[in-house]
Structure formats: structure tokens, C-alpha cells
Backbone:
């Protein structure tokens, strides 16, 4: 009938909003223009417009993560999770280095990276101190 062709259905046959519809809804909810979100995300405003109109032919996980950040959402935010689920990007890219991709995995990778960076900074600081002592 009057249903949009690109709306997705869940297994129960209930019509759900598309990724584009959710992006537009969330963008308006936070009060940002397409241009502002695109600039914050580092993507072309035309691409965001095409995403919101479901004319892009799918969204990459990297683009979705950038847009979610530009909207001011954490990856753990319910709205971000809804975008991931609706887009199907996690189904297209189910692993990172052989690990399942989900919120817990993202958080674990973030914390692991933070620890690694802190260790590196500590090593740099120690090396700088040693260098300064040797240079005196």
C-alpha cells in the first residue's frame, strides 16, 4: 500500500524505520542541520543527505560511527545501537581481528587502546627523563 519500499521489516513483519529515517529523526532531535552533522563527522553533506533519504545504497560502519559521534552520541547510546541494528553493518562486518563486534567488544578495544597509549606515554616520559639526565 503506501509503505515506502526501503523500510525494513523485522521477523514479525512489523515495519521499522530505515537508517535514513532514524538518522534524520536523531539529527532533528539534537537540533543540528545536515551540514553541521556532516562537517562534524568529516563527510560530504551530500552523502549525509543521501543517507537520510536512503539513496546511498548502504552505509559503512566507519561512516555510521562518525555520524553517531557527530550527533553527540556514545556508541553505547540506545540510539546508536538502534542505528547499528537497523543498518545491518554489524551483520556485514561481524568480527574485528576474529572477535565478534558488539558494544562490549568496542568498549574492550577502546580500553585496551587507552591502556596501550598510557603505557607508551609513560615510556616516553621515562625516556625523556633518562635523556635529560644523560644530557646534563
Residues:
Amino acid at each position: 500500500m503506501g509503505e515506502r519500499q526501503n523500510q525494513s521489516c523485522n521477523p514479525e513483519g512489523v515495519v521499522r524505520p530505515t537508517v535514513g529515517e532514524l538518522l534524520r529523526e536523531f539529527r532533528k532531535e539534537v537540533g543540528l542541520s545536515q551540514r553541521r552533522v556532516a562537517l562534524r563527522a568529516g563527510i560530504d553533506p551530500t552523502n549525509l543527505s543521501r543517507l537520510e533519504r536512503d539513496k546511498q545504497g548502504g552505509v559503512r560502519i566507519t561512516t555510521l560511527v562518525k555520524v553517531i559521534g557527530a550527533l553527540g552520541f556514545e556508541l553505547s547510546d540506545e540510539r546508536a545501537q538502534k542505528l547499528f541494528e537497523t543498518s545491518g553493518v554489524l551483520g556485514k562486518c561481524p568480527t574485528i581481528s576474529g572477535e565478534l563486534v558488539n558494544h562490549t567488544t568496542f568498549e574492550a578495544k577502546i580500553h585496551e587502546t587507552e591502556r596501550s597509549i598510557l603505557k607508551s606515554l609513560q615510556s616516553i616520559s621515562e625516556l625523556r627523563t633518562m635523556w635529560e639526565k644523560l644530557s646534563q
Observations:
- Confidence is low (pLDDT under 50) at residues 1-11, 92-96.
